[in-house]
Write a structure and sequence with these properties.
It is built from 13 helices and 17 strands. By secondary structure, it is α+β, with helices and mostly antiparallel strands. The chain has a 5-stranded antiparallel beta sheet with strand order 2-1-5-4-3, sandwiched between helices. Strands 7-6-10-9-8 form a 5-stranded antiparallel beta sheet. Strands 12-14-15-17-16 form a 5-stranded mixed beta sheet. α9 runs antiparallel to α10 (431-446) and α10 (431-446) runs parallel beside α11. It has helices at residues 13-83, 96-108, 142-152, 198-206, 235-240, 288-325, 327-332, 334-393, 397-422, 431-446, 466-486, 534-545, 567-570; strands spanning 114-118, 124-127, 160-164, 174-182, 188-197, 214-219, 225-230, 258-262, 266-274, 281-287, 428-430, 453-459, 463-465, 494-503, 508-515, 549-554, 559-566. The termini are far apart. Its EC number is 2.7.13.3. InterPro entries: HATPase_C_sf (IPR036890), HATPase_dom (IPR003594), His_kinase_dom (IPR005467), Sig_transdc_His_kin_sub2_dim/P (IPR011495), Sig_transdc_His_kinase_HWE (IPR011102). It is an enzyme of class 2 (transferase). This is histidine kinase.
Length: 573
């Protein structure tokens, strides 16, 4: 029989076997934990690099949008300046009046440094800088040669963008945007140009902060570096760096990223985005060294977890060994364990009482969770609405109506979830507040001039269950939308009135939506002003869903829609 120390013989072989087993098990568990932590750390590093690539791509898209807007504004300046050059069959006027108009353009547009007109050979005719203009020959500039070459090749007029190093006028680097001035016979009559300081781009790029040092490149045709900005670099050094001294990195794969180490910019993760409709690209590089440093900081956390795990496994191993040695003693104390079991039952009863209190707390947490769910649903509906709106912009006008109707319905549902998120009752909606928010929202969606049609909402307080509020809100949205679209044609002004009131004689709640517009077309009294369609089919289905009675009749003038909800559905007293 084993003794109190767990040994079955004089050599203690059983105890030794248990010690070996516990040691092996502890070692296996420790190696497993370390392997899991290593995999997690590697996956975390991969995810950080992928996140940096997505961040660089999103930043490049933002800067590409900014560059596109700037080029569009510059084309406006060039087109206005081209009008000052006179008719195609006349020489470019070198008058003080033209000089004054060019100066006005420069003062109007913040990014414009100067605007000027050149003759077909690239010589200055008139400029916003000075009058009379000093003799200057730009025939050797790349942008002049490109315009001359395009005209000689019979290509259509186009915007050309070039970089000028250390301009003789400003002493700084400039970006030149120019367009040709075609003559009456299609020949090159002259060139209109706009100069933008490189510093204008850098000032904007300096404000972009994503948590890592950025290298931003604006690339032109043939990946020519037009602007290069490295955050934290010496501004004077950037001004002195010519594009040919530090060319652009190779293009990343489509939709991907490129990790590259370049002279003067270090190890970076690059992403690229095109400027829509332009021969321009924006390339953004994130400092990979800072990324690695951040990952190493997180790696220290993993190492700390590994150390804690090792200590925990060692402690568990010691406890298991101690349990093995005391196994015989535990068998001898079985009777005492029964007594302890009874004591544990009493303790468990006390724990159950405590659990009831925790359940009440969990219920409150559930209500908070419901509010968060409604908040996320509202955000997702708004995202779907934005995607539909973007898709609708690409569709012909005759197909856009269906998208706009879907947007109004999505906004009606989104508004319900927004109110649920803002209230302390996660399953009930203040329907009066909902109507006051819904009507102006729909007016902004469907009316270019919302002030043309007045919307009056008179609603008594009414709390509705979610299953009733959503279909009733969609019904109200359909009727208001129908009035906005059809009751006031030909830009008529008018008024839409929404009423929500308890009706004692009908034992329910009455929702009335009426307008003073053109009224119903000849036909059945339950037909809408537009002759019926999916909207009214949906209204009738929603009314049946909430057990409401729907009636439509002519107003004096206009149309009235009455929706009577029974008290059993609304819960009205």
């Amino acid at each position: 029989m084993a003794g109190r120390d767990g040994k079955s013989g004089p050599d203690g072989k059983d105890s030794l076997s248990a010690t070996t087993l516990v040691g092996v098990a502890a070692g296996v568990v420790l190696l497993f934990v370390l392997a899991i932590l290593l995999l997690v750390a590697r996956e975390d590093r991969r995810e950080m690099v992928a996140h940096a690539g997505r961040l660089a791509a999103n930043t490049a898209l933002l800067l590409a949008e900014q560059a596109g807007q700037l080029v569009a504004a510059s084309e406006v300046v060039l087109d206005e300046a081209a009008l000052l050059a006179g008719p195609p069959d006349a020489p470019i006027p070198a008058t003080q009046a033209v000089h004054q108009e060019l100066r006005r353009l420069v003062e109007t547009w913040e990014h414009a440094n100067s605007v000027y007109l050149l003759d077909p050979t690239g010589r200055s005719v008139v400029s916003s800088r000075e009058f009379p203009v000093r003799p200057a020959d730009s025939s050797g500039r790349l942008y002049v040669q490109r315009q001359i070459g395009r005209t000689a090749a019979g290509l259509p007029p186009a915007l050309v963008i070039d970089r000028v190093e250390r301009s003789v006028f400003t002493g700084t680097n400039l970006l030149i945007l120019c367009k040709p001035l075609p003559g009456a016979d299609g020949s090159l009559r002259g060139i209109v140009g706009l100069a933008v300081r490189e510093e204008f781009f850098r000032n904007f790029y300096q404000q972009v902060d994503v948590g890592f040092g950025l290298a931003i490149l604006l690339l032109g045709a043939d990946r020519q570096v037009l602007v290069r900005h490295v955050q934290g670099a010496d501004a004077g050094a950037e001004e002195r760096t010519a594009p040919e001294e530090s060319p652009a990195p190779p293009a990343p794969p489509p939709g991907g990223m490129l990790r590259l180490s370049t002279l003067g910019e270090g190890d970076r993760i690059y992403a690229e985005a095109p400027v829509r409709g332009r021969d321009l690209r924006v390339m953004v590089g994130l400092d990979a060294t800072a990324l690695e440093a951040r990952w190493r900081e997180r790696l220290r956390v993993y190492l700390l977890i590994a150390a804690i795990a090792a200590i925990g496994v060692s402690g568990l191993g010691l406890l298991a060994l101690r349990w093995a040695r005391r196994e015989a003693e535990v068998r001898d104390r079985l009777e005492e364990a029964n007594h302890l079991l009874e004591q544990r039952v009493g303790e468990r009863t006390a724990e159950l009482s405590e659990s009831n209190g925790k359940l009440a707390l969990a219920l409150r947490d559930k209500e908070v969770l419901f509010r968060e769910v409604h908040h996320r649903v509202k955000n997702n509906l708004q995202l779907v609405s934005s995607l539909l709106r973007l898709q609708a912009m690409r569709l012909p006008a005759e197909l856009r109506q269906g998208f706009e109707d879907s947007l109004s319905r999505i906004q009606s549902m989104s508004l319900v979830h927004e109110l649920l998120y803002r209230t302390n009752q996660p399953s009930r909606v203040d329907f009066a507040d909902y109507l006051r928010r819904l009507a102006p929202t729909l007016a902004e969606c469907f009316l270019p001039d919302p002030d043309r049609i007045a919307i009056e909402v008179v609603a008594e307080p009414l709390d509705l269950e979610l299953d009733t509020a959503i279909p009733l809100g969609l019904l109200a949205g359909e009727l208001i939308t129908n009035a906005l679209k059809h009751a006031f044609p030909d830009w008529r002004a008018g008024c839409i009135t929404v009423r929500l009131e308890r009706v004692a004689e009908a034992d329910g709640v009455l929702l009335t939506i009426m307008d003073d517009g053109v009224g119903l077309r000849p036909g059945p009294t339950d037909a809408p002003a537009d002759g019926g369609g999916l909207g009214m089919v949906l209204v009738q289905s929603l009314a049946a869903q909430v057990q409401a009675t729907l009636s439509t009749r002519p107003g004096a003038p206009g149309t009235r829609h009455h929706v009577l909800l029974p008290a059993a559905v609304t819960g009205a007293d």
